[in-house]
């Protein structure tokens, strides 16, 4: 257990925060510190073909130890942490034999991780938890995933009696700013399929995510002196608010769950002359996703029809752009890749929790680039903030899941 804790801590104490405003890859230079350390570590444990490309993507191979043909599979994790919360100077705390009570993360600042609020904690009574000191995030997202992949490869090298085909490992930058898959060289990776180790609680197995689009809607107004405005002024801010009021009121993130999609207004800025509304559209169903996009265009059309005489031109300009798609479409035709992961968990006494992701993963983009890629738990909770924690037992289980997947894949005819 100490070995996996030490490995995890050696990763999270390196600041790898990504930055959406940067145009370089990786978005921040400091990510390369960990990337290069991983290269050295992968070589040291005995992996082959260890490479890092000019964009910081790390890849490595564990060669097959069997004669017969076997699919090549991969395991992927991201080494950046979110810019939403600081990842500098992470000081992990280790709570042994967790008693099910409050955990004081920071006495001075009175920051407490409590099962009264974070009920998931209670399922880890008696286990070893790694938490923050209340001033940073932890970075279990996704350094737990990296820890598990490296540990599983090390285990396989030390246990040649476990038969496996060719295994590939991939570590990516910039996942948290949505670019982890952008420059991932799927061809070079050369796998039949892969798994991202980037889910949360033990048992999670995900192969469905949202279809996603972003809309930018511009409202044109007409500014006239308010004293002489009757019948002349068009206040674009009021138009925008009217438009928003026509969106389905119950289809918003705070009122939906599971497979329910939504419209989500993420920004408004305006003046009388011009107002811009930004919103995102999410839906698991491809058909409903299309309908949602059409709805925005139809609504814009209706506004334009109504105002065309007075304004003499389009008053609403709606631009809708697709962002990513549901990987289900790419995974279902090769569904055995989900079944293998499910079987691996069951054989290890882990109850698979299969549920749709209300978001996207690197795996969904990779699936559309030709590498079907479901997502497996990495074990952490409360990502992207100071309450983030990970049970060491979950990381050990995830490591075992990787080994088991490899075994089952090799044994499958
Ligand atoms: Zn992640």
From TrEMBL:
Binds 2 Zn(2+) ions per subunit. GO terms for molecular function: metallopeptidase activity; tripeptide aminopeptidase activity; zinc ion binding. The active site is at residues 80, 175. Pfam families: M20_dimer, Peptidase_M20. It catalyses: Release of the N-terminal residue from a tripeptide. SUPFAM superfamilies: Bacterial exopeptidase dimerisation domain, Zn-dependent exopeptidases. The keyword Cytoplasm applies. Zn(2+) 2 binds at residues 141, 176, 384. Zn(2+) 1 binds at residues 78, 141, 198. One of its GO terms (biological process) is peptide catabolic process. PANTHER family: PEPTIDASE T. Cleaves the N-terminal amino acid of tripeptides. This is Peptidase T. It comes from Flavobacterium cucumis.
